[in-house]
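Quick look at the format.
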Amino acid sequence: MSFSPLAPVLDLFANPTAARRPYRAPLATLFAAALLATTAGCAGGLDDPDRFTGGTSSCAPGTTGASVIQAQCLSCHSTDSNGSAGGGLDLQASGLPGRLYTTNSACNNAPLADSANPSQSFFLKKLTASPGCGARMPLGSSLSATDTACVTDWLVAGKPSP
């Protein structure tokens, strides 16, 4: 008596791994595709932080708007500079850049930062050759174009929410 229709079923009972063999290749392919999909668009490493932030900063690597102000402005515009801040502007106290939006210039009583158009603020105009009132800052020198753009980004990013 021949059981040819049952032969494959009987073979599965005799050799259970044979039942799984046809499914190994598709599962391996699926696993490889999933691994490739998750690693193909890797965001970058910590040595490349612009990949995580979108790279929109105008600052030189390792520089921030706050670090430019600290290096270029605090010698005159801090409470530590001979007991009084230059022009009455203390850039060392907490709350910058938001505090610039609520402080007026001693030179023309204009707001230092314009919330309607932060990139056109008087604080930033003081970094140009023609500030419109008083001397160009920092006194006796000027910021590089990169540092000026970095400070501009810093001020615009620090605009208080309405």
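Next, a different chain entirely:
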Amino acid sequence: MTYLDDLFSLTGRTAVVTGDLGSRDGVRAVADAVTAPFGEPDILVHSAGINIRPPYPDITEADWDATMMVNAFAPFLLGQRFAPRMAERGYGRLIHISSQQAHRAFVGSGVYGMSKGAVESLVRSEAEAWGGTGVTSNALVPGFGLTPLNARLPQEPGRVEALAARTIIGRNGEPEDFAGAAVFLASPSSGYVTGQSLFVDGGMSVH
């Protein structure tokens, strides 16, 4: 049994809501649907993202609009929807997933890197806006891990190994490496942590 198995075994009732974060109306519909099973949430984790990265000269306005909508504007809208009610209840956690490419350019950052830079600025603005209400906003900055979003990288010979070599620990990330940090940011233990970008990257960012 893995750490994630242990974590999810503690879950009580769950509900699945599907939707589209690629438009303003879609985000609002998802936000409304989320409240139906159990009411207003105390914790928001925005982990949805898209990774459109053609060669930089070939980036189109459509690429920009789609990427910024899902990666940056959707979390803004969700925070605007849920944070005021969290503040009324005196507890809330806004957790956004950022990227190494918010801080450094590599493997064709393009609009994706720009969108993640916007996410980290959003975190600081939300932290300031909701300071003192019991609502915090933070970003989780993961190191490289094999996910559907970067499925193309293993097709490049040596790329995955090179990314592991950029860490201090000497390996790429696994899902359980990031889960504990997310749980911390969602918990009362993180009440004095806000406006921060928490790197969980095996030391990649300092190597």
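The radius of gyration is 17 Å.

See the schema section for token definitions.
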